[in-house]
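Could someone model nicotinamide-adenine-dinucleotide with this protein?
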Amino acid sequence: MILDGKLVVKGIREKLKKDVLGNKITLAIVVVGENSSSASYIKGVMKTSEKLGINIKLVKTDENVSTEEMIEKINELNIDDSVNGIMIQMPLPKTIDQVKVINSIDYLKDVDGLTDISMGKLVKNTGDGFLPCTPLAVLKTIEYYDIEIEGMDVVVIGRSNIVGKPIASILTNKGATVTVCHSKTKDLKEKTKNADMVIVAIGRKHFLTEDMVNEDAVVIDVGINVVDGKLYGDVDYDNLINKVKAITPVPGGIGTITNTLLLKNTVDSYLK
Ligand code: NAD
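Reply:
Sure, complex below.
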């Protein structure tokens, strides 16, 4: 079975349109300098927000902005009642203290789920924080296709703060037994072979091959790799599609859902 991101996103957008109707909801996006990769992501968010009737407040700053100046800008957005969500486009220039800047976002407007408070709430499973959008896209896909998470043996490959770790926490909270693997993991294949679900988020084209999974596995590909202008996932999709139980494609899988969930979190922030 192909786990189609377009179908997952359709239902979410239909519900969002109803929630947005008649309300003025605004997401602030803070952008530092010019960055082509962030420009395309922001373009995607803006296109979706237009379809849904959500306003975008683009806050552009100079490449040479200081940490203090950025925090000042974010504080202005924190106290601005017309702003419901704040997102900072990554990567930030190396001269900026990324941790300090992210943590200056009021967690009530942290619709990207990246502050330490949001992460802490996720790990503690308090239920009142925003979940980061890519991990949330993984959860929404699993739920849309009625895949029972409780009791599953899940292997997550990748342990980054924005993808791997939050995915592991979300699924642990839902009752899965999660093994987090990374570049220092021994015998990775032995772990993935025995897993009911394998989620790959490392950024290496076609890393997960046919011999690494079993026939009943659900495979979720978070990877985005652009090689010679073409998009590839972390999973060798063509060779796994006829072997495993279910699989997400790239493109058309997890990446398709992410920006809609950023806007969903913004709407939820407004409704709260
Ligand atoms: P990252 O570079 O921060 O982390 C990569 C992780 O992969 C690390 O934990 C590292 O230990 C692990 N890793 C690297 N090589 C490995 C190997 N050979 N074996 C096992 N583990 C290995 O990356 P990230 O920000 O977490 O992103 C991961 C991938 O997900 C990238 O391709 C990125 O483009 C993609 N991504 C997709 C979306 C989306 O919306 N679909 C959003 C964010 C990131």
